[in-house]
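Q: How do we represent a protein-ligand complex in a form that can be generated token by token?
A: Start from the inputs.
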Amino acid sequence: MKKFFLLGHPVSHSLSPRIHGMFAEQCHMQIDYRTYDIEPGGFIDYVGRLRLEENPAGANVTLPFKRDAADYCTEITERARSAGAVNTMTFSGNHVYGDNTDGAGFVNDLTGRCGVSLLGKRVLVIGAGGAARGVLAAICSQGCARITVSNRTIGAAIALADEMGVHYAAFTDLTTGYDIVINATSAGLSNASPAVPGTIFKDCEIACDLFYAKTPTPFMRFASESGCRRVEDGLGMLIEQAAESFHIWLGARPDTKPVYAALRG
Ligand code: NAP
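Then emit the structure tokens for the protein with NAP bound:
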């Protein structure tokens, strides 16, 4: 049976084993998907040891090791390079192929399950960390009319905007004029919403929080209260990025709809 791992810290709360288990069942495959909680600083040694002892076929990588994973790989895809992070590793002999499926996961969920096109849209991405990078790398090729990145620490937004060829704005300069607003900050982890003005949701068709929870996140509540017509969390993205990883490893494309329904339920 092929082995796949999720490597991160912490990982005990992760839905990935359930998601991949459902994908495998649907595709009549048997896989062994396990989580490993790695102490920060020990990623490279740990993965080296795991590969020798367990001979895995692949691994997902989550916080805080996506950049370490990019360094560890012998070859990475263009989308992983532009995201500056790897969340999917495939092992083949001495080679380690790295990819980043986060951005594609976001776009597939938005355009598929949510039925929202990015073509001609004015998009605001809040945050300038790894998730914002992955999402920007993916939406830049979707024909958006204008993409703006904003971040609590403005220097990080300026650097990211320069690198990706998009606009930037400080939180205090944000006003109206966005069709799609994406919260790619980790504020949800501290049960908070980024301190952006509610006016950004005035013309907004959909506000997406990459963070997900059982109940609407603080950002989703803030967007709704500020007049946003539709709000979504990051569960759909999580499932879609997993489906991309599954396809890379096993060549099969699982149907993500029943998995979303099961996990949301
Ligand atoms: P990261 O690299 O650590 O970046 C964190 C970002 O959040 C930075 O831009 C930081 O701004 C900002 N931030 C943190 N707390 C904030 C606050 N209270 N107010 C405003 N901004 C704040 O983290 P990441 O990997 O990008 O992850 C970001 C989020 O995306 C997390 O919630 C994660 O769970 C989610 N995510 C979801 C999926 C999915 O599949 N659904 C996949 C990947 C990530 P500063 O620069 O000012 O510190």
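The pocket of NAP is lined by residues 63, 102, 105, 127-132, 151-153, 156, 184-190, 192, 194, 210-212, 234, 237-238, 241 (CB under 6 Å). The chain has two domains: 2-100, 103-235.
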